[in-house]
Amino acid sequence: MMKRLLFRKCIACVTTLSLSLITPWNMISNCVSAESKSTYLIRIDPSQAVVSEEEVAQGDVTIPAAVYLTGSMENTFGSIKLMYQSDSSHVYFENMVVGDNSSKQDTETTYESSQGTFSTSYIPYCFGYLVGTRYNTGSPMFTTNAECCDPIFGSTLYSAGNGQVTFTISYYQGIDTDGDGILERDTDTGKITEDVICDVVENEDGSGSYTYTYYDQSSFLEMEATGTIPRYDETLEAGSTVPGACNSLVWLPVNQLANGASFFGDTSDEFPFFYVDIVVEQGTPAGIYQVTFDEEGCQLISESQVNYDFTTQGVTIVVGDPSSVDVTVTSMESDATAYYTSDDTDEITASDFASEILATVTITDSGGLTITQENVDIRSLVDCNGLTPQTMYNSLKQNGCAIGDISLYYNGNSLTWEDDSLVTQKIMVGMRGDVNYDGNVTIQDAYQVQCYTAEIATGNIAFLYQGTSTDEDMETLTYFLADIDTCSKTGSDGGTLNIQDAYYIMRYYAETSAGNSPTWDSVQQ
Predict the structure, then answer these.
(1) Is the Cα torsion angle 115, 117, 120, 126 positive or negative in sign?
(2) What pLDDT is stored for residue 1 in this prediction?
(3) CA gap 353, 80 in Å, rounded
(4) DSSP 8-state code for residue 503
(5) Could you tell me the pTM of the whole model?
(6) Strand partners, 120
(7) CA–CA separation, 205 vs 490, rounded Å?
(8) What gap in Å lies between CA 354 and CA 337, rounded to an integer?
(9) Which of 64, 524, 4, 498 is nearest to 276 (CA)?
(10) N or C: more exposed end of the chain, with fewer CB within 10 A?
């Protein structure tokens, strides 16, 4: 659960930074499709998903969010392209923060990670890495549309004040050297660079449009171009960069293209891929708003140009006072069982184990108007009413672990199905390293893991769980608790249980026996 702690720590210091465009979009085109080694999940995690009517009445509400990639640690990446969108002009995006120089800070910040403690002025992201104790970005190049650019020349737009924008263009004029009416490049005059100033027309949807003429560099004929500004602000100070849509990104790891970039940490989503603010504008009506990924506009590509398979997970933003929202669940896609360790103090949320929770949602706004929407994905709004794995372990532990069908909640109210039965999730919690469930991490646990791995290595069928419980998921829970470094559940989800895990358990036991207070991160150093 370290990624959630890191997100809370990092986001406060990155939401006011700006980005610059540095990489052409076409650098990741023409990739060869191939069968993927693994399927990845692209998901966005907001810091909140419910906004009250009172909040949006007072002004724009900014919701910091992080985008994660979740999947196998075995693969490497050569390029990534992501696109996402809101289903309403009332919800938009600002302040993309990425792991290259554009988001670098003036001072260093210290971070705790599974790879050790490090300090850096960069924003750590999922493809960074440590060389000793020094953080390295891999010199990534992020191309974003955080700034608005001209569609023909790709130049950054700046406010010119008085309802105008300005940008720079460079071009050759044409000349008819043969008298046949066919224009060729006028090399005698040379390349012309000039600043263009355009009036901006504000559209009904809040966007702006501007039009200008230019010389096409193929025919050298005079053409007309129209550019669009996603959210035009005519009060923007002259000389200020005009913000873009902040809803697309392309990434390349410049120093790692030959071998591809690997994930940073013990899990692929220990660190986010990048950050972005979701903004709910002032005066947004009560209702349900969706942020989703454009799957046709997303690509995860290896260094050898293999397209990895992926699924996406967006977020639902509810605008309305919580007491005025009524929810009835109609379907849920989730893991059959969710597994946690007893040292995890983060609140359990549905985002941990569910890919989709569809519901019929009814909102009554402050004026008494009722709004009903069906098939709303409320996964990001659902939790276990403040329950943490640690509190569940302490209160429900029997025979060394806690097992329960735990009720799911929205805003403190139990979720129900259409027949009024409770919506629940099976959750299992055990002590990390305690594979014999005696409530302690001892040499016996290390021995049990060692015996298991030896049997598997010789091709025998072996079972790690040696207790009396008949719960069919006990073997998976035991594997999860024993796999110290990669926290996998079966070995098919990107991790491996081996003799190294037995060593970590032994070392943890030795430290505690000596009167020390080790952590699982410290014994892996």
Answers:
(1) positive
(2) 35
(3) 25
(4) H
(5) 0.76
(6) 109
(7) 50
(8) 10
(9) 64
(10) C
Can you tell me the distance from the alpha carbon of 474 to that of 78, in angstroms, rounded to the nearest whole number? 39
Q: Which residue has the tokens 């609140």?
A: 347
Burial class for 389, CB neighbours closer than 10 Å (0-12, 13-18, 19+): buried
Q: Position 240: which residue type?
A: S
The CA-atom distances, in angstroms, between 475 and each of 272, 449, 461 are: 31, 12, 13
Nearest one of 228, 285, 226, 296 to 85, comparing CA atoms: 296
Task: Yes or no: say if 49 and 59 are a contact pair by the CB < 8 Å rule.
Answer: no
CA distances (Å), 212 to each of 169, 298, 334, in order?
11, 32, 52
Q: Per the structure block, which two tokens stand in for 33?
A: 């499709």
Q: Are 465 and 475 in contact (CB under 8 A)?
A: yes
Helix (H) or strand (E) holding 209: strand 208-215
As a whole number of Å, the end-to-end CA separation of the chain is 19
Alpha-carbon span 81 to 302, nearest angstrom: 12
- Whole-number Å distance between alpha carbons of 18 and 96: 7
Q: Decide if 339 contacts 328 (C-beta within 8 A).
A: no
Which of 50, 5, 47 lies closest to 346 in space, CA to CA? 5
Instruction: Yes or no: say if 261 and 76 are a contact pair by the CB < 8 Å rule.
Output: yes
Per-block mean pLDDT, blocks of 10 residues, the chain (525 long): 35 32 34 52 92 94 97 91 95 96 94 92 96 92 94 95 96 91 92 96 92 95 95 93 96 80 91 98 93 96 92 91 88 96 95 93 87 90 95 96 96 94 98 97 96 93 93 96 88 77 96 93 85
Question: Could you tell me the sign of the dihedral formed by the alpha carbons of 438, 439, 440, 445, in that order?
Answer: positive
Select from 422, 411, 435 the least CA-distant residue to 505. Answer: 435
The whole-number pLDDT of residue 11 equals 35
Q: Which amino acid is residue 318, in one-letter code?
A: V
Instruction: Kindly write down the DSSP assignment for every residue of 357-407, as one continuous string.
Output: EEEEEEEE-TTS-EEEEEEEE-GGG-B-TT--HHHHHHHH-BTTEEEEEEE
**Cα angle 215, 218, 222; round to 5:** 25
Burial of 463 (0-12, 13-18, 19+ CB in 10 A): exposed
For residue 259, give both structure tokens: 């071998």
CA distance 81 to 96: 14
SS (H, E, C) 393-456: HHHHCECCEEEEEEECEECCEECEECCCCECEEEEEEECCCCCCCCCCCCHHHHHHHHHHHHHH
- Note whether 253 and 77 are within 8 A (CB): yes
Tell how strand 337-341 and strand 424-430 pair up. Answer: parallel
